[in-house]
């Protein structure tokens, strides 16, 4: 299985909204780092909306004996967004949209 990164330049000061839902997520909808997570009462997905005017959704694939596993994540340092992935394939969907309600 392979691994890699995709780096997107970001608009300075742009915020990322998304990540998922869980008890601790209700107070802050912004995210600077996220990786897929599925637990009782928590779901996090590799998706965000950026105030720079687009949304992004990444899907990677790693095959294991027990089935496929999602192994991608993103993080931002305020100047760029870095997607990291492991696996046989990675697809990054970019959705140009200035409004969050239209990009979800």
What do these coordinates show?
This protein is an all-beta fold and 104 residues long. Helix content is 0%, strand content 61%. It has no helices and ten strands. It has strands spanning 2-9, 16-21, 33-34, 37-39, 42-50, 54-64, 67-69, 72-76, 80-87, 89-96. Strands 2, 4, 5, 6, 7 and 10 form a six-stranded antiparallel sheet that branches. The protein has a four-stranded antiparallel sheet with strand order 1-9-8-3, with no helix packed on it. The chain is globular, with a radius of gyration of 14 Å. The mean pLDDT is 77.
Per-chain topology:
Elements: E1 2-9, E2 16-21, E3 33-34, E4 37-39, E5 42-50, E6 54-64, E7 67-69, E8 72-76, E9 80-87, E10 89-96
Antiparallel strand pairs: 1-9, 2-5, 3-8, 4-5, 5-6, 6-7, 6-10, 8-9
Give keywords.
single chain; mainly beta; 6-stranded antiparallel β-sheet; 4-stranded antiparallel β-sheet
Biggest sheet character: 6 strands, antiparallel
Give the end-to-end Cα distance, rounded to a whole number of Å: 31 Å
**Percentage of residues in strands:** over 45%
Unreliable runs, pLDDT <50, ≥5 residues? Answer: none
- Radius of gyration (CA) equals 14 Å
Give the oligomer, counting copies of the same chain as homo and different chains as hetero: single chain
DSSP E strands, number: 10
Query: Can you write the helix and strand succession as a string?
Result: EEEEEEEEEE
Shape: globular
| Strand-pairing-aware structural class | mainly beta
> Average pLDDT across residues?
77
Q: What proportion of the residues is helical, as a percent range? A: under 10%
């Amino acid at each position: 299985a392979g691994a890699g990164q995709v780096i997107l330049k970001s608009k300075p000061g742009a915020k990322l909204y998304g990540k998922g839902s869980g008890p601790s997520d209700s107070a802050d909808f912004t995210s600077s780092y996220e990786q897929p997570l599925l637990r009782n009462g928590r779901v996090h997905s590799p998706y965000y909306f950026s105030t720079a005017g687009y949304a992004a959704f990444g899907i990677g694939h790693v095959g294991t004996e027990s089935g496929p596993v999602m192994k991608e994540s993103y993080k931002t340092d305020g100047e760029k967004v870095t997607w990291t992935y492991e696996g046989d394939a990675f697809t990054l969907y970019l959705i140009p949209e200035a409004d969050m309600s239209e990009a979800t």
